[in-house]
Amino acid sequence: MSTITKKDFVDRISEKTGQKRGEVKETIQLFLDEMIDELTNGNRLEFRDFGVFEVRERAARIAQNPKTLEQVQVPARKAVRFKIGRLMRERIVGESLTQELASR
Amino acid sequence: MSTITKKDFVDRISEKTGQKRGEVKETIQLFLDEMIDELTNGNRLEFRDFGVFEVRERAARIAQNPKTLEQVQVPARKAVRFKIGRLMRERIVGESLTQELASR
Fold it and tell me: B79 contacts in A (CB within 8 Å)?
């Protein structure tokens, strides 16, 4: 298992398309930055095949400190949720199901 | 709340950078496609400030059909996890905490 970074994708896309590395880098960086902006504004991002990002509100709750047993109020807070898209699901989740069935 | 799509980002990035719309579209599409490929291969994607995508194995478990009370074996399956990055967390989660404190 490897970790792939922005730089790896920029190099690869520049090679595949023949576009200048600097331009590809600028596009990818803006894309990621604009996604953060839109989520910050409460908008939902939907990329067909890839998936959906959205900000959800987690309700306030009472939690207990396991050491002191003290109860604390945890305020409502926002969280970002990624929901996997159709193609990604077929390729990643679907594949593991197929392997599972094949190994029976 | 609006839904923002790939097309919206392509238009916006093309306007901001002066790059040709077709080239921006090609880069964004390849970026999303390559992310799916890398996750399918079991690799981890790490984008500073934005977040990390990784494939995790969910363990096999026994589930119960709530209507028939029949127990069924749910096989292990893969799931994609998105872990929010530092900047996105500060801007989205941090903001909601600040609002929470300000409203007390």
Answer: 84, 93
In A, minimum Cα distance to B104 occurs at A75
**pLDDT tens-digit map of B18-46:** 999 999 999 999 999 999 999 999 999 99
DSSP string, chain B: --EEEHHHHHHHHHHHH---HHHHHHHHHHHHHHHHHHHHTT-EEEETTTEEEEEEEEPPEEEE-TTT--EEEEPPEEEEEEEE-HHHIIIIIIHHHHHHHHT-
What's the pTM value of the predicted model, to 2 decimals?
0.83
- Give tens-digit pLDDT for B55-90: 998 888 898 888 898 998 888 889 999 999 999 999
How far apart (Å, rounded) are the C-alpha atoms in residues A25 and B10? 14
